[in-house]
Amino acid sequence: MGSRAEDPDEANPGVEGVQSEARPSSRRPPSTGEYDYVRKERDLYRGLLRLNLEGDPHAFLREALELIVGVMGAAQGYLELFAPDDVDEPWRYSFGFSEQQTDEVRQLVSRGIISEAVATERVVFTPSALLDPRFRHRDSVRRSLIDVVLCAPIGRDPPCGIVYLQGGAGLAANEASGWLTQFAEHLAPLRQHLVLKRQSQGGGELGALRKRLGAVAFHGRSPALASLLQEVEHLAPLEVGVLLTGETGTGKTDLARLIHANSPRATQPFVEVNCAALPDTLIENELFGSMAGAHSTAARRSEGKVAAAQGGTLLLDEIGDLSLPAQAKLLQLLQAKEYYPLGASRPSKADVRVIAATHVDLQAAVAERRFREDLRYRLEVMTVRVPSLGERPEDKGLLATYFCERACKAHKLPRVALSPAAIRAVESAEWPGNVRQLANAVESATIRAASQRASQIEVHHLFLKHGDAQAPGPTRTFQEETRRFQADLVKRVLEANSWNVSAAARDLDLTRAHIYNLINAFGLKR
Asked: Measuring CA to CA, which residue among 254, 264, 195 is closest to residue 225?
């Protein structure tokens, strides 16, 4: 065994360079080595159970790699988990490799043996490259004296990482593939357990920020979400008006409630008014109330929404849809901090913090004379743009999981969970209706799966095909057309690059892990 790692381009010429896939391992070891077999298998399970108690994910992964290298009698090992939920970069660990050698092994993740293991979701075995007629003429093979390599994916649909072992007589044993498969199968749920444990403890800056704000409904790990919550933390304590902008369904109402909950007015009322639903004839009565006898139906004095929000926060939702006459009445409230109930001769003081929300481009509305410019300036004291779900791709899976759990609890359904394929489908789909559309889709899928007594929510529960009784509409829905386009695009780019995942990721400006997710979500085959 030499001191350098294998060069992927030379030692592994694509899929054809892998001599054989996972060899069938005997369920019983050879009779002459039964004691040694049982002892190693016992050590493997004991080690996995011990590692399950480890609270530090990094220590867990380091010891897990050392465990499998020791049990299998390998010379060197490398372990990588693709883009864990609570860190930006993959978790990578090596054993027996120098830093330079580790960098060389990392190149194998996107091609050669490791790429084949991830794509096929099976253990891949390559015997002595130095003696193999296809490899022995390679300079890197002769220089590194590469003998045996064994690689297994961690998890399935899609794999969440790989274990790569190199060198050592133990890898050539009949039971080696079986041991590595058992190890990888146990490592996936243990890794997920540690990640969830870390998240539940508020791991990371975003977790700490969510905990401080009490933002339990804002699930995700994206930079866009972190930036949004940082803005909320800064402006919530200030006694200033706030204008929330962004696409429909992004959660502007929930964000307004979060601002109120973290303001000095948190113990006072939070009152919401949907401006788009207010006719001009009722705007004054709805907002400002009326005195007895002010109009034909005013038998007694009625309290408006401004009075109901006294001391607290008034949310004016869809303010871009407010009519021009109603805009003039609202401007007086914002300027003078007082208002006249219908039929009143004296003004009432308004001690409210106004938060306005709209999906309309107010600047364009002013140019088109659909919105008052002076009102726009009054509203834009502090403007917060709520990002669309398309700007938060990392958050789709976490949000879907949260909505699934919420639906089970709200409807008292048996506990069901999204399958890995369903999560990949959620992550790869477009959601023009943003968080609201995703929440409705997951809730419907949860009810549908529970009614069918399914143990998991599958892709067909989320995206009904044409012809289903519950799927009226065009031949193909927007979601179906989008998924079809994405699948065709990814497949074309992969084929153009001979299924080199790294090259395809560069062409599509996506991460390698995202490409693997799309391959599994769309069921693409080479």
From this structure: 254
